[in-house]
Amino acid sequence: MGKRRRGRERQENCVSCGRTVPRDKAVDFNKRSFFSTDLRTGDNVSLFTETDVYYCISCAKHRKIFEKKKKLAQMRRGVF
Ligand SMILES: [Zn+2]
């Protein structure tokens, strides 16, 4: 065991191709989804979920996640 370990390396699965990628190489993307039954009565049920998904680098590139992240960063910079 000559390899030096940097703490505990977490593995993440790419949601697109299922490849296992180490956490520091995986591209995390915050996926937000909103569900609503759109009922105007009191029975209306709305659900807001926020999940972190991980992509491998090739899938992230293919899905233009880097560009989305850039845009998000710019928007945040504009707000604050
Ligand atoms: Zn992938």
Keywords for this structure?
single chain, 80 residues, alpha+beta, two-stranded antiparallel sheet, 32% strand, binds zinc ion
Itemize the secondary structure elements and their pairings:
Layout: E1 11-13, E2 20-22, E3 27-36, E4 46-55, H1 57-62, H2 65-79
Antiparallel strand pairs: 1-2, 3-4
Bound molecules: zinc ion.
Model description:
The structure is a single chain. This protein is an alpha+beta fold. The chain has one domain (11-38, 46-79). 26% of the residues lie in helices and 32% in strands. It is built from two helices and four strands; from the N terminus they run ββββαα. The protein has helices at 57-62, 65-79, and strands at 11-13, 20-22, 27-36, 46-55. A two-stranded antiparallel ribbon has the order 1-2. Strands 3-4 form a two-stranded antiparallel sheet. A hairpin with a 6-residue loop joins β1 and β2. The longest helix has 15 residues, at 65-79.
Q: Ligands bound here?
A: zinc ion
The neighbouring-strand order within the major sheet is: 1-2
Query: What structural class is derived from the secondary structure elements?
Result: alpha+beta
Indicate how many domains the architecture comprises.
1
User: What composes the largest sheet?
Assistant: 2 strands, antiparallel
Unreliable residue runs: none
Please summarize what this structure is.
The protein has 80 residues and is of the alpha+beta class.
